[in-house]
Amino acid sequence: MSNEVTTKKYVSQFEMFGTVISLTLFKRDQAVVETVYDYLQDADRIFSANREDSLLMKINRQAGVQPVQVPRQLYDLIKRGVVASRKYRDSFNVLIGSLVKLWRIGFDGQRLPDPADIKARLQLIKPDDVLLNDEQQTVYLNRRGMELRPGRDCQRVFCRSNYGSVAIEWFESWHCEPWW
């Protein structure tokens, strides 16, 4: 006879943010699954760099064209990312997306880009070229081709923002620690 304790796990998976998200519960609770799913779906519509219809991608499409007014949660995330990019120029850049795309990492056709392409894209990752208007909550990328791409560092900022505080409350109510 084994002394091993087995624990039932209830796993739900869904695709968002360009990845597969696994939600594991240790008691069956469809209401929690649906609440978490709806919350993440809303966040995906706002913050995702992997959805052409997200508000983040709207800013990227309007680069060099016009400022875009965004909800407070997204504005605060972008502002924190831009401020950090200006402060830590050698180690963090929220505008790195257009440069990183040259390698096509994680997509078909991965390649080593031409040095001339890299040089051209380096002109598009200058944090001082982002104009933020706190009063109107607008973001303007003043060069065509610029692209905001919050990575893990900005996702951690999101998780600690007002929008993400709900997630922290959920983790605490379930007596477990968030991963960030």
Indicate the topology.
Elements lengths: L9 E7 L2 E7 L4 H18 L7 H7 L6 E2 L2 H16 L9 H4 L14 H8 L7 E4 L4 E4 L10 H9 L1 H12 L7
Antiparallel strand pairs: 1-2, 3-5, 4-5
Descriptive account of the structure:
The protein is an alpha+beta fold and 180 residues long. The chain has 7 helices and 5 strands. Strand 1 (10-16) and strand 2 (19-25) form a beta hairpin. The chain is globular, with a radius of gyration of 19 Å. The model is unreliable at 161-180 (pLDDT under 50).
- How much beta, percentage-wise? 5-15%
Number of helices: 7
Distance between the termini: 39 Å
Helix content: 40-55%
Could you give the order of the helices and strands?
Answer: EEHHEHHHEEHH
Q: Which terms summarize this structure?
A:
180 residues, alpha+beta, two-stranded antiparallel sheet, 7 helices, 5 strands, disordered C terminus
Summarize the structure.
With 180 residues, the chain is of the alpha+beta class. 41% of the residues lie in helices and 13% in strands.
